[in-house]
User: What shape does this take?
Amino acid sequence: MSGVRAAARRLIPAALLNWYRHRRTELEETRNAARSHGEVFDDIYRNYRWGGRGRAAFFSGHGSNDEAADPYVRCVRDFIGAHGIDSVCDLGCGDFRVGAEIASAVGRYIGIDVVPGLVDWLNANHAQPGKVMFRCADMAADPLPAANLYLIRQVLQHLSNDAIARVVANLPPAGWLIVTEHQPDDARLISPNRDKRSGSTIRLQKGSGVYLERPPFSLRGFDGMILEVVGENHAGKPEGFIRSFLFRLGGPDGF
Ligand SMILES: C[S@@+](CC[C@H](N)C(=O)[O-])C[C@H]1O[C@@H](n2cnc3c(N)ncnc32)[C@H](O)[C@@H]1O
Assistant: This one.
C-alpha cells in the first residue's frame, strides 16, 4: 500500500472509507453492465484496480503473491506428478506470476485470458515455442484447447452468476479441473453463489462466494477440497479462505 493511501486510511473514518469503496464499486459495476468481459478486465488492468501501479505492466492482484500462491503451486505440482499430467490449460491466467511456477512442471502450458493487451504482453515476454503459449479467449464463450488439467484460479469470483453458468456450459467434456475461490469462513457464509456484476470485487463482503458444485451451477464430477489457505480482505487483514476444489469433467460426483 502506498504511503499516501496508508495515511488516508489513518485519517479518514472507517465508515467514510467504506461508503467511498461501496460507491466506487457501484459505479464501476454499473459501467460494466454494458461491457464485454474483455472490456471489463482491460479496464481493471489499465486502472490498476487490483494494485501494482508503477510496479508492473499488468498486475493480477495480491492474491497472486508468493504467500498466497506458494501452497497452491505446491499442490498443483504434486497433482501433476501424481496423475501423469502433461498438458495444463490455465483459464484466466492473469499476469502469469502463478502460472510460471506451474508451466515449469509440465510439458505444455496454455494460458487463456480475455484481455488482448495482456495476452500480447504475455506472448512477447513469457512464451516458449511448443511449451508455453498464451491465447486470448473468453472462457464463457470461445472454444477451449484440449488439456489433461484445467486450472481456474480466482477468476469466477469476479464474474456474475450468468457468466459463471456460461463458463460451466463451455467447459470441455473431459479432463481434470482445479477451481480456486476466495470464500468466507463457514460461520460468516450468508448464502452461497450470491449474484454480482462482473468486475474487480468479489462476493466476500456480501457473505458469499462461488461454490461451483452447488446450485445454480451444480457442476458434476466434484471430488472435494484439496487445499485451504487463509485469505485476506481488501485491507490486507485475514478474512475467509482461498480454497481449491477438484472436479473430473464429465464424471459423476464423488467418483
Ligand atoms: C484475479 S486474476 C487471477 C489470475 C491468475 N489466475 C492468478 O491466480 O494469479 C483473474 C483473471 O481472469 C481473467 N478473466 C476474467 N474473465 C475471463 C474470461 N471470461 N475468460 C478468460 N479470462 C478471464 C482476467 O482478465 C484476469 O486476468
In short: The mean pLDDT is 92.
